[in-house]
Amino acid sequence: MHTLVAFALFFLVGVPGVSCARVPDHFLTGKNDKYPTERYLTGVGQGADLSEAQSKAFASIGAQVSASIEAVLISDEQTVIRSSSDERPREEMLVRVKNSVRQTVRFDPEGLVRIADSYTDSGIVYVFAVLEKAAAAAHYRAQAERLRAQTAQCVERFEQALSEQDLRGAAAAARDVREPSTEIARLLLMSEALVGARTTRAVWEEELAVFEIPSRLRTFRSSLEVQVCVTQKQALGDGELIRAELTNHLAGAGFRVQRCGTPKSPDAAGQFRVEATLDARFVEEPALEGIVFCLPRVALRVSDTANPARQLLAAEIGGTSARAAGRDERIASQAATKKLASQILARLDDLFGE
Hints:
Elements: H1 2-13, H2 26-29, E1 40-47, H3 50-82, H4 88-101, E2 113-121, E3 124-132, H5 133-163, H6 167-195, H7 201-211, H8 213-222, E4 224-232, H9 239-252, E5 256-259, E6 270-284, E7 291-304, E8 307-317, E9 322-325, H10 329-352
Parallel strand pairs: 4-5, 4-6
Antiparallel strand pairs: 1-3, 2-3, 6-7, 7-8, 7-9
Helix pairs in contact: 3-4, 3-6, 5-6, 6-7, 6-8, 9-10
């Protein structure tokens, strides 16, 4: 009899420290009628404290946003397949733009995701977090809108430079528009992933003109000729290496590369002259027997052949060196000049916008 009474009390009172309460379903399923899936993304998490549970819940929502982005891209690829021949180039470009930023999109829950409910049972903290999709999408579109004023100014500068056949100005505008336009693409992709293309398509269409600037700049470069003129002082250094590097790099950037002194072609929009005057000196270090150092320098000048007095670039470039054993000046010269060539190409990229 005493045993039966004790057994009954065990179930009525329970074991000390152990809760008999049932964890509400929404902390386990992530579903709550107060937050319909049409309007909200929800996430749940549990942990030893509120911070751990919150982090897991927020991460769950972030994973859903990432999945939505992938769904957008898959849908866009299907749209390309279904589009007409007239629409396809535009649709393909839109897909390229989105794919170019997909890996750099990072969901930041700060200020967007909130804890809607929490619960503690037996030392375990449960969190139910929500993200209102429309509000978050509007937040991203507002950020994109603020950046659009910046890109609009860059586009205006770019168009003006093209009309004046000002390569340097066009290249500078193209560089300035690159970062804000990329950020706009990220923001629009996030917005679209949350609420669909219906609220972002018109904005995408307006921004495609910005994303076309690099290809338009390259087309402009293809209408320009560049004379490559390399000279050496006292036959020191490796002028042929410099000439080959300049020729290959400028041709790769889309220019029509000409030998020094070639007259401008009738169909060319313009012609530039790149002059590189190479000098070098060799130094032996007494502490390093048999070792010779080559220290090359170059005077780099870029001008418009239609107006030679107007220099686009004038720079003295040096600071590189290379050494060779056996006092082999040829090997030292090649190695040092190769380093110097990379500096020259970087300066030309800054000028011409590559």
